Amino acid sequence: MPLRRRNGSAQVRQQDDDGRRPAAGSPRLDAADLGAELGARATLVQFSSAFCAPCRATRRVLDEVAGMVPGVTHVEIDAEGHLELVRALDVLKTPTVLVLDADGRVVRRAVGQPRTADVIAALGEAV
């Protein structure tokens, strides 16, 4: 499911939203898509909204994990301010967390507030 750009708009095919590893050819994001550099080993991408209490808790968990694991970066994206990307990635709820490998490929996807242990386990697939 590669992220495609046509006439300046991002497009991506549907993928499962159940937390399983996405199929081969999953979307690939880069620094231009995220507005921040990718982590050397992995990137935790969080889609949030302003009045989302679970988003604040998710931010704390992902910041903590990124601080514990060398080469991992946490990038938070305001869903309302990035509707094109939200639509391209089929983000339906906040928080939605994507785990990207070093090349920017989505290797894991989850909706809702994650537990620290689950984030660390998901990073195992990315690094």
Describe the protein's architecture and organization.
The protein is of the alpha+beta class. The protein has a single domain, classed as 3-Layer(aba) Sandwich (Glutaredoxin), CATH 3.40.30. The chain has 4 helices and 6 strands, in the order ββαβαβαββα. The protein has a 4-stranded mixed sheet. The longest helix is centred in the middle third of the chain and has 16 residues, at about 55-70. Mean pLDDT is about 85; it is low at about 1-20.
Report a brief summary of the structure:
This protein is an alpha+beta fold. Helix content is 29%, strand content 25%.
The number of helical elements comes to 4
Helix content: 25-40%
- Write out the CATH superfamily name: Glutaredoxin
What would CATH call the class?
Answer: Alpha Beta
End-to-end separation in angstroms reads 20 Å
Judging from the principal axes of the Cα atoms, what is the shape? globular
Strand content: 25-35%
Biggest sheet character: 4 strands, mixed
Judging by the overall fold, what is the CATH architecture? 3-Layer(aba) Sandwich
Comma- or semicolon-separated keywords:
4 helices; single chain; alpha+beta; two-stranded antiparallel sheet; 127 residues; disordered N terminus; Glutaredoxin; four-stranded mixed β-sheet; Thioredoxin_CS
